Amino acid sequence: MARYVFVTGGVVSSIGKGLSSASLAALLQLRGFNVRIRKLDPYLNVDPGTMNPFQHGEVFVTDDGAETDLDLGHYERFTGISATQSDNITTGGIYSEIIKKERKGDYLGGTVQVVPHVTDRIKKFISHDIKNEDFVICEIGGTVGDIESLPFLEAIRQFSNDTEKKNSLFIHLTLVPYLKASGELKTKPTQHSVKELRSLGIQPDIIICRSEKKIPISERKKISLFCNVNIENVIETVDVRTIYEAPISFHKEKLDDRVLSYFNIKSKKIPNLTKWKNITTKVLNTTKTSEIRNKKRLKSQLNKKVAPLMKDMQGVNNEILWEMEEILEDIIERNGSYNESHEEALNNLADIIAYHRVIDENIDSIKEIVDKL
C-alpha cells in the first residue's frame, strides 16, 4: 500500500518545495523504495504552456508530450523516473473538465460546487494510476494563505481522513528570515504560517525551516513549542551551494529517517550518497575553475587596454594611479567573467583616460562606468 507525503509551503513563494520533494524522493529511492512525485498547481491556466517563462519559469515537456510545471523536471532529474501528464494538474485544468461535464449534463442538474466536485477531482488525481509505489509525494503549489490554494488544501485534508491518518504525512516548508541589522533569526513567520495551516484543519507532522544561517537549537525548540511539532521533526535546511547538494543536506538532517519513522517503516538498505557527493564536487569545482579562468582572461584584457594609456600618464599623482588600479581590480573581483558589457565599459574607460590624460577630475566618471557592469 502506498504512503502519501504532502508538501506545502509558507511565508514566501518559490521557497524550494519542488527541490525538497525531489530530494526526499531521491533519498527514499536510495533506501530501496519505489517513489512517485506529483505537482498540484493552483493557478487558473490549463497548463504552463502559454505562460511567460520569465514569470513562472521554464516549461517541462514530458515524454508523453504534456507541457508541465518546471518542478517535474527536478523530479525527473533527481529520481530518474520519467514524469507523465498524469503527474501534474492545475486549477484551470480541473475547472475546464468540470465545466465541460456540467454542460453535457453529467451532473444531472445538480449544483456544481468546489466541495465536493473540485475537491473530489483533486483526490482522484492524487491516487490515480498508482501501481507498485511505496511512496507518493505530492507538492502543493503556491503559499499557504493564498486564496487559490484553498481547494487543494481542503482536498488533501479530506484525503488524509479517507486513507487513514497513519498513511499520510504533512510536511510544511517555511522561511526563517535572518535580520542582518540585528543579527537575529525570526521564527514568527513560521509560527503564523503553521497557524494558518492548522486553521484549515491540517497539522504538519514535519516542518522544514529554510534559512541562510544555521538555526540554533533554542529557535528550533520555539518552533516546536508553538507549532505543536516534535523537536526532532523540525528540520533545518541552510542554503546550499548547488541544488545537487540538497539531498546530502537533507540526509544530514535525517529527513528521510523522520519520514520512515513516522510511517513505522524500516529502511530496506543503507543509503549511499556517493553519486550526489560526486556530482556536487564536479559542479562546484567546475564553477571555481571557470571563475579563475574568466578572471585571468578579464585581467589580461584590462592590462592590454589600459597599459598603453598608463604610459601617457607619467607624472600623474601616484594616489590617482593606485585608485585606478583598485577600480580595475574591483571589476575583476566583482564580475569574474569577460563579456560585451565589459568590452563597452573598457572602451569608455580608455576613451576617458586617453582624452583627458590626467584623470583627477574623472575618477567619479570611471566609477560610474564600473558600477554599470
Overview of this protein structure:
The protein is an alpha/beta fold. It has two domains: 3-272, Rossmann fold (3-Layer(aba) Sandwich); 279-371, no CATH class. Helix content is 51%, strand content 13%. It contains 14 helices and eleven strands. The protein has helices at residues 17-30, 53-56, 71-79, 91-104, 114-127, 150-162, 188-199, 217-227, 246-252, 255-263, 274-311, 318-335, 340-356, 363-371; strands at 3-9, 35-41, 60-61, 67-68, 88-90, 135-140, 168-175, 178-179, 184-185, 206-211, 234-238. The strands form three sheets. Strands 5-2-6-1-7-10-11 form a seven-stranded parallel beta sheet, sandwiched between helices. The protein has a two-stranded antiparallel sheet with strand order 3-4. Strands 8-9 form a two-stranded antiparallel sheet. Strand 8 and strand 9 (184-185) form a beta hairpin. The longest helix is centred in the C-terminal third of the chain and has 38 residues, at 274-311.
Number of helices: 14
The name of the CATH superfamily of the largest domain reads P-loop containing nucleotide triphosphate hydrolases
Mean residue pLDDT? 85
How does CATH name the architecture of the largest domain?
3-Layer(aba) Sandwich
Cα distance spanning the termini: 57 Å
Number of domains: 2
What's the overall geometry? globular
* Stretches with pLDDT under 50, minimum 5 residues: 357-361
Strand content is 5-15%
Which CATH first-tier class of the largest domain would you pick?
A: Alpha Beta
Give the helix level as a range of percent.
Answer: 40-55%
Give the class from helix and strand content and strand pairing.
alpha/beta
Give, in spatial order, the strands making up the sheet with the most strands.
5-2-6-1-7-10-11
